[in-house]
Write a structure and sequence with these properties.
The structure holds two protein chains of two kinds. By secondary structure, chain A is an all-alpha fold. Chain A is built from twelve helices and no strands. Chain A has two domains: 52 residues, no CATH class; 213 residues, MetI-like (MetI-like fold), CATH 1.10.3720.10. In chain A, helix 4 runs antiparallel to helix 9, helix 5 crosses helix 7 and helix 11 packs across helix 12. Chain B is built from 13 helices and no strands. Chain B starts with a helix and ends with a helix. Classes of the chains: A mainly alpha, B mainly alpha.
């Protein structure tokens, strides 16, 4: 990953630092990153420590006789662990697909057409993201119960997807607004219908943007599956990872090294995504927010 | 004319699926919450309309305390996110080797499943064996073990710190983008005029970052106000209600005690606050956009 260590030649004098400034910057960054990463470092070290060292005072930072035993034994203590990961991935994937099917046409409409009432609708979509799922739990719970959908994957996927729509629309609309309108006119001159233009001209061009939105939505869906899964599902075999592990976290005797080992295996997909898709990430995370 | 009409139909047809979805999953439940707030709905199959009784019942001293606690908790958290985010963004903007890696390393708290990050904090806050208590004792800052989540005051701050931890990456990356969109000529001109680094930060970076800071404060205010996972996993609102915010309180009433009617009334109060933030946000973005044009 040569990209990470790109040494750019800074030609302008303005970016030249005195030696004590460099030390100050690195010290500041070190403090900042320590705050961001301390839980992960500590969590990882805990996953390596044997329980006897974990539950001993005084506190010791480095593991003695560290081993990856917990990564093996956790499969017995958390018997459905494989299922939790599978459920998490399944819920995120289906939610992402639902969001894409709804958002790609909508974002195109918002980007290309300016009809009366559309600005209001866009505002309403954005307002959705301001309400958390928590205030809607009661009617949703009753609705799902009436429909007999409590304790199914459906109960976690459908409400979750609704809250991923606003940011996806915003992000993709921003991207699609950069596609020149002349393309539409040219297609119209050639006798293409609106739908044909959308399907054959716009979609292929928008593909990179759609991919970014898909990644962002997937990460969001993977990261935020808690409240709906906690409330609408009590079947162990359908639980996504966060709720599945929460059941162990809440126990009287937490086997911490195994919980941390399980957590690390659980976040591995997210970390892999960060590592390989970093180029898309920073752009994707900020593009939607920065400019219309 | 006919082309225009076809385009009109096409545009709304594209929007229809998303609109219907959000109407069913978000808008209808919102209306339903309002309706249920005037009933005594519970696990029983039938319920009656009870007028304003739910609202009369919740507006007591406890609820007022919860509202105030929600606002102080949220304000401290947002304030810390803005300060640390600005600090991080300025540092990560420095042209030093390794900065691309550092930017990447700020992201994990944001990207990994929230609940899992919170488990790790749960361990760090452990009094007997956790890292924070352990290090504090080692450096002689405290006498004995501090069980952060066992006392009201420390639990209150512990949940704030975790909330800040989760929120900072997004704020930082957003601020970083804002800083990078500031034209370089400004800095070069100031540099030629002999302005030092602090002056350039104070007179160029900070004023031009202001719109980003304002926007992010409101967005962050809304998401922090809605914060559920952190408090629920770490303390479930305890000890003795010291971390019970409005969201937690609503959840306990509605889902915990199955008092749907009363829970709905509490949810409506949350919605009123959120709508106010929402209006403030739209007003502000409009003003900022107008200011940017002028």
């Amino acid at each position: 990953m040569a990209k990470l260590f790109r040494f750019e030649k800074t030609s302008t004098m303005i970016d030249r630092y005195k030696w004590w400034e460099v030390i100050g910057i690195y010290a500041g960054i070190a403090v900042f990153l320590f705050f961001m990463l301390a839980p992960f470092i500590e969590g990882f070290l805990v996953s390596l420590k044997p329980l006897s060292q974990l539950f001993s005072t005084p506190y010791s930072f480095w593991p003695e006789n560290g081993s990856f035993t917990a990564y093996r034994t956790m499969w017995e203590s958390v018997p459905k662990f494989g299922w939790y990961i599978f459920n998490s991935l399944l819920i995120s994937s289906v939610a992402t697909m639902i969001v894409l099917v709804l958002v790609v046409p909508a974002a195109y409409a918002f980007a290309r057409f300016k009809f009366k009432g559309m600005a209001l609708v866009l505002g309403a979509f954005l307002a959705v993201s301001m309400f958390s799922g928590a205030v809607l739990l009661i009617p949703l719970f009753r609705l799902l119960r009436t429909l007999g959908l409590l304790n199914t994957y459906f109960a976690m996927i459908v409400p979750g997807a609704a809250f991923l729509i606003p940011s996806a629309i915003w992000l993709l609309r921003t991207y699609m607004m950069r596609i020149p309108a002349e393309l539409n006119e040219a297609a119209y001159m050639d006798g293409a219908s609106q739908f044909y233009t959308f399907r054959r001209v716009i979609l292929p061009i928008a593909r990179p943007g759609i991919i970014v939105v898909a990644i962002m939505t997937f990460i969001g869906a993977y990261a935020q599956q808690f409240i709906f899964a906690l409330t609408f599902n009590s079947k162990t075999e359908y639980m996504p990872l966060p709720v599945g592990l929460y059941a162990y976290f809440g126990k009287q005797e937490v086997i911490w090294n195994e919980l941390m080992a399980a957590s690390f295996v659980g976040i591995a997909p997210a970390l892999v995504i960060i590592f390989f898709l970093q180029r898309y990430l920073v752009g994707g995370l900020t593009a939607g927010a920065i400019k219309q | 004319m006919s082309q225009n009409r076809a385009a009109w139909i096409f545009a709304w047809a594209l929007l229809a699926p998303a609109i219907i979805y959000v109407l069913v999953i978000v808008a209808w439940p919102l209306v339903e919450t309002l309706r249920l707030s005037f009933t005594n709905a519970s696990l029983r199959r039938t319920y009656d309309y009870v007028g304003w009784r739910n609202y009369e019942k919740i507006f007591d001293k406890d609820f007022l305390e919860i509202i105030i606690r929600t606002f102080t908790w949220t304000s401290f958290s947002v304030l810390l996110k803005m300060i640390i985010g600005t600090f991080g963004a300025v540092l990560l903007n420095c042209a030093v080797p390794g900065r691309h890696l550092f930017r990447l390393l700020t992201m994990p708290p944001w990207i990994v499943p929230m609940a899992i990050g919170i488990f790790m904090w749960g361990w760090m806050y452990n009094g007997q064996f956790g890292m924070i208590s352990g290090l504090l004792q080692r450096f002689g800052l405290v006498d004995g073990p501090v069980a952060f989540l066992a006392y009201g005051n420390t639990a209150y701050w512990a949940t704030i710190v975790t909330d800040v931890w989760i929120g900072v990456p997004m704020v930082t990356i957003y601020f970083l983008a804002a800083i990078q969109s500031i034209p370089r000529d400004l800095y070069e001109a100031a540099w030629t005029d002999g302005a030092n680094r602090w002056m350039r930060f104070r007179r160029i970076t900070l004023p031009l970052m202001a719109p980003a800071i304002i926007t992010m404060s409101v967005l962050s205010l809304i998401s922090t106000f809605n914060s559920f996972d952190i408090i629920w996993i770490l303390t479930q609102g305890g000890p003795s209600g010291s971390t019970t915010t409005m969201i937690i309180d609503t959840y306990q009433t509605a889902i915990g005690s199955k008092k749907y009617g009363e829970g709905a009334a509490r949810a409506v109060v949350i919605c009123i606050f959120l709508s106010l933030f929402c209006v403030a946000y739209f007003r502000m973005t409009r003003k900022l956009a107008a200011a940017a044009k002028a």
